[in-house]
Amino acid sequence: MFAVSASSFDSEDPLSGLETGDRPEPEVADGWTTIEVRAASLNHHDLWSLRGVGLAEDRLPMILGCDAAGVDSEGNEVIVHAVVGDPDWKGDETLDPRRSLLSERHQGTFAERVAVPRRNLLPKPPELSFEQAACLPTAWLTAYRMLFTRGHVVPGMTVLVQGAAGGVATALVVLASAAGARVWVTSRSEDKRNHALGLGAEQAFESGARLPERVDVVMETVGEATWGHSIRSLKPGGTLVVSGATTGSAPPAELGRVFFLQLSVVGSTMGTLDELDRLVRFCVEKGVRPQIDKVVALADAREGFEAMLTGNLAGKIVFTV
Ligand SMILES: NC(=O)c1ccc[n+]([C@@H]2O[C@H](COP(=O)([O-])OP(=O)(O)OC[C@H]3O[C@@H](n4cnc5c(N)ncnc54)[C@H](OP(=O)(O)O)[C@@H]3O)[C@@H](O)[C@H]2O)c1
Question: Residue 239 has what pLDDT?
Answer without folding.
Answer: 98
